[in-house]
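Reviewer 2 asked us to include a model.

Predict the structure of this chain.
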Amino acid sequence: MDSIGIKVNTTSLQSAIEDILRDYGDVVYEATAEGIKAAEKVLIKNLKAASPSIKNPPKGYIKKNFAKNWKGKTSRDKLRRYVGNTTTVTDKKGGEIPLANILEYSTTRGKPFIKATHEASIDEMARAVVETIKREV
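Predicted model (structure tokens):
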């Protein structure tokens, strides 16, 4: 008992605080997931701008516009996104190879730009995440 004679139940106070923090955590999680989507859009925009134009497409080139084929994909974890390019070429055995892999890693036909574009986009992506979280929370 305190000096007035009232008994304070700290268990119910603790429970109420936990409920409020859990609700707030859910809001922040959802806002962060929306921010990650915004970051994905920034990266796709920058990859489209940095994509090389293909004047003489390699033999087996299937799709016509590499830059337009950047796509995002959600993983099971809402806080993770994957960005890739759907353009493929056929190899000598008839199998399909992602053109992005050839451009990024080939020692003979390579024109690496994906990793550099991603690294150059990090600050802009981070700003997109923060702006989205501020709007949502």
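DSSP finds three helices and four strands in the chain. The first helix runs from residue 10 to 50. We have added this to the supplementary material.
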